[in-house]
UniProtKB/TrEMBL annotation:
Pfam families: Polysacc_deac_1. Gene3D superfamilies: Glycoside hydrolase/deacetylase. This is Polysaccharide deacetylase family protein. PANTHER family: CHITIN DEACETYLASE 1-RELATED (PTHR10587:SF133), GLYCOSYL TRANSFERASE-RELATED (PTHR10587). Residues 1-34 form the signal peptide.
Length: 305
C-alpha cells in the first residue's frame, strides 16, 4: 500500500501567505546584497575553490527561494500543467528506510571524505553526478562507483536551470550526460533535475530513454546553514526546516527523516556541512533504527516518477 502525503504540503495557509511573501522579498533582496558582497570579497582574497563553493551555495539558495515564491503565487493547476515541480515526491517512503543522495559531485576533497564515512559504516548512497565534473575527475567518479551498493545518477551535463533554457539545450544536457555516464547508470537509470526544476519536454525525453525521475522527501538545506544566524525564515520554509532547527543542520535532517519515517535525503557533495555531519547523521539514524537503501531499490519504486 502506498502512503500519500497531503498534496502540496509545502503550501502554507492563506493567512500565512502574505507574511511569508514579505519575508521572502526581504530574503531575495538580502540575497542580491550577499551576491554583491561575495563578488567583492572573492576579488580581494578568497581562494578560487571557496569562492566556487560559496557562489554555488548562493545559486542553490536563490533557486530555492524562487521555487518557494512560485509555490506561493502560482495556482497549483498551472504548476501541474507546466510540469514545473516533478521533483516533489507525493508518496511517503518505505517505512524506516533512508536513501542518502549526494548531488553535484564529484567534488575533490569532499568526495573522498564522504566515501570514507560511507565505507566505514557500510552504508550505500546515490551520487547524482554533474557529467562534466565526472569527466574532469574520472578517478573520483570511479571511487564512487566502487562503493558497495552505490548508485550513480544523471544530474545533467553542466547543471543549468531547466526552467531557463530552450528544449534543445535541455535535451543536449541529458544526452551528453547519458553518453558519458551510461555504463554506470544501471538497469533502471535515475535522473535528477538540477535544482529540482523540471519541464514537460524533459520529463518525456528521460522517460522515453528509460529513466525514472528522483526528487526528495527530505531537503537538508545544506547550502544555507553556514551563516552565524542560520537560515532565514524564507530559506527555512523553502526547505521545510522547522523554526527550532534554523541553526541546527543535524537536528533538522533527523527531524525531517522522523517526520517522513524515512525518505530520500537531498545533500550536496559541494557543501562541507553535509560532509562534516555525515558520520554523526548516520550514527544517529542507525541508533533510531533506520536502515539505508537507494532510490533504485524496488522498495522505493513508488517514490519515483
Ligand atoms: Zn544539483
Amino acid at each position: 500500500m502506498i502512503r500519500t502525503l497531503p498534496r502540496h504540503s509545502l503550501r502554507p495557509s492563506p493567512a500565512a501567505r502574505l507574511a511569508v511573501l514579505v519575508v521572502l522579498v526581504a530574503g531575495l533582496s538580502a540575497g542580491a546584497r550577499a551576491q554583491d558582497a561575495a563578488a567583492s570579497a572573492s576579488a580581494a582574497s578568497a581562494s578560487a575553490a571557496s569562492a566556487h563553493a560559496r557562489s554555488h551555495a548562493e545559486t542553490l539558495r536563490h533557486t530555492h527561494l524562487v521555487r518557494l515564491q512560485e509555490h506561493l503565487e502560482k495556482p497549483e493547476e498551472d504548476l501541474h500543467r507546466t510540469c514545473r515541480f516533478e521533483s516533489d515526491i507525493a508518496t511517503l517512503p518505505p517505512e524506516g528506510v533512508v536513501a542518502l543522495t549526494f548531488d553535484d559531485g564529484p567534488e575533490p576533497g569532499h568526495t573522498e571524505a564522504i566515501l570514507a564515512v560511507l565505507g566505514r559504516h557500510q552504508v550505500p548512497a546515490t551520487f547524482f553526478l554533474i557529467a562534466e565534473k565526472a569527466k574532469a575527475h574520472p578517478e573520483l567518479a570511479a571511487q564512487e562507483r566502487a562503493l558497495p551498493g552505490a548508485v550513480i545518477g544523471n544530474h545533467s551535463w553542466s547543471h543549468p536551470n531547466f526552467h531557463d533554457i530552450p528544449v534543445e539545450e535541455q535535451t543536449s544536457e541529458v544526452d551528453r550526460a547519458d553518453a558519458l555516464l551510461h555504463a554506470d547508470l544501471g538497469a533502471t537509470p535515475l535522473f535528477r533535475y538540477p535544482y529540482g526544476n523540471s519541464s514537460c519536454d524533459t520529463n518525456e525525453r528521460v522517460h522515453t530513454m528509460g529513466y525514472r525521475i528522483v526528487g526528495w522527501h527530505v531537503d537538508s538545506c545544506d547550502w544555507g546553514f553556514d551563516g552565524p544566524k542560520g537560515l532565514t525564515a524564507a530559506e527555512a520554509l523553502s526547505c521545510g526546516v522547522l523554526p527550532a532547527y534554523r541553526q541546527d543542520f543535524l537536528g533538522h535532517v533527523v527531524a525531517s527523516v522522523r517526520a517522513h519515517r524515512g525518505g530520500v535525503v537531498l545533500m550536496h557533495e559541494t557543501q562541507h556541512i553535509s560532509v562534516d555531519n555525515l558520520d554523526a547523521l548516520i550514527v544517529k539514524l542507525q541508533a533510531e533504527g533506520y536502515r539505508f537503501s537507494t532510490p533504485a531499490a524496488p522498495e522505493y519504486a513508488a517514490s519515483l516518477r
